[in-house]
Design brief:
- It is globular and about 25 Å long.
- By secondary structure, the protein is an all-alpha fold.
- It has a domain of about 60 residues.
- The model has no long low-confidence stretch (mean pLDDT about 85).
- Helix 1 crosses helix 3 and helix 3 crosses helix 5.
- It is built from six helices and no strands.
Length: about 90
């Protein structure tokens, strides 16, 4: 599967609503985890950027779950510290 094919699939199916996992399995023959791995690799490749720069950039800019969790902890720490200083 080429980066262009992966990015084209992602452009047609941008959200996880509905049965995206089923479509990934049926249309691409991949597990969702493998799809995400290949999609990220495709988005970071020069071929992927040439094929669909907009989708590649969108895929690359989505923060990982770990990044989101770390930012949430940082925000909670700041807010909790801020609140405790005012009390």
């Amino acid at each position: 599967m080429t980066p262009a094919e992966l990015l084209a699939f992602e452009a047609r199916n941008p959200s996880w609503r509905g049965n995206k996992e089923t479509r990934i399995r049926q249309q691409l023959g991949l597990t969702p985890a493998r799809y995400i791995t290949l999609l990220i690799r495709a988005a970071e490749s020069e071929e992927g950027m040439r094929a669909d720069a907009v989708t590649a950039r969108r895929v690359r800019d989505v923060p990982s779950r770990q990044d989101r969790r770390a930012r949430l902890v940082d925000v909670c720490t700041i807010v909790c510290t801020d609140v405790s200083l005012r009390v």
